[in-house]
Give the backbone structure.
Amino acid sequence: MEEMTLAKADPEIAHAVRAEIDREKNTLVMIASENYASRAILEAQANVMTNKYAEGYPEKRYYGGCEYVDVAERLAIERAKSLFGAEYVNVQPHSGSQANMAVYLAFLKPGDVILGMDLAHGGHLTHGSTVNFSGTLFQSVFYGLHPENQVIDYDQIEDLARKHKPKMIISGASAYPRTIDFEKIKEIGKRVNALTMADIAHIAGLVVASLHPTPVGRVDFVTSTTHKTLRGPRGGLILSGEKYGRALDSGVFPGIQGGPLMHVIAAKAVCFGEALRPDFREYQRQVLLNARALAEALLGAGFDLVSGGTDTHLMLIDLTERNITGLDAERALGRAGIAVNKNTVPNDKRGPRVTSGLRIGTPALTTRGMKEEEMAVIAGLIKNVLEGPENEKVLKDARSTVAELCGEFPIYEFLEQNG
Ligand code: DSN
């Protein structure tokens, strides 16, 4: 086998990778679900464990030669147990969607009723959306935000649960800026005899830093991704009490997956190790301080925020009363070097491809070392761009401030970009 570098073997892909490095270094990444994994995590993921088949679980594999990947998976499991305070952990789901799917496969039957948060109010596709497997295999019923305060309406959850008798109540969200009361979800589940699941993909980093109440030990199942606030490699995770462990293991493999991605599991172990360190809590604390500072500055600049602010790493700008759609806002900010995503807001009159909102988060900027002062500057840039999305001078000035900020708070200095 020839041992060429990527640059020699496949210049087109090498160029695309270097261009992505360039983009990540020189953009203000404010997509709430994105972050910068550490060098150690990138290295752990880019290794020969990608070659290894390891269907099964440590010491119970269907292949020989698993002794070293077993080390990685055992470390990932033990560290995640300690990090989240969980009795049972499965680190094999390839993604958050597959973590959710494995829980459903293990505990639901086709046609069962599930109660989840409406996608249009901030929920996730896998929480019962009709365009997702969860909405085609199961009968989904949705709760949402209270029309007045735009906070989750727990009374509505209980009313719907009593009326529809769901087999499972799903909490957690992709675009919800407020604290979620998992204790209330647990209590409602108990009263209506439903299983309860919390998908903490977005807030996992805040949860392990004790900056958001944990659902672990409260609801029956907790699922997560590892790459958002947790700042690890792209992947999924399931946590629960020991009593559900055997069924969940089977739900993941052989239920929905074959060979686990052992290089990713190695990187998850590194991520959990990083998150166990005290500086990770400090990082999460700053993520929250930055989100609050950004929200205050945006409110001060006259923007409407869903629910009037944030308790977490993200916020939603409601553009309904403004002369710009979410799509155009995302594009204009993109041209200025600020990456965000359009997002529906409650009772959005526009569809998901256009939307009347923007979702903005602080995890990636905080990883670069930015603080409240920079958030105020960035809020000013957002205001200028959204008020003059076609104004080339505004966009040029914004790009220049973005370049200054990226220069002052560098990231991935060890990585080579296109020249
Ligand atoms: N697509 C993810 C997000 O951006 O929140 C959720 O799966």
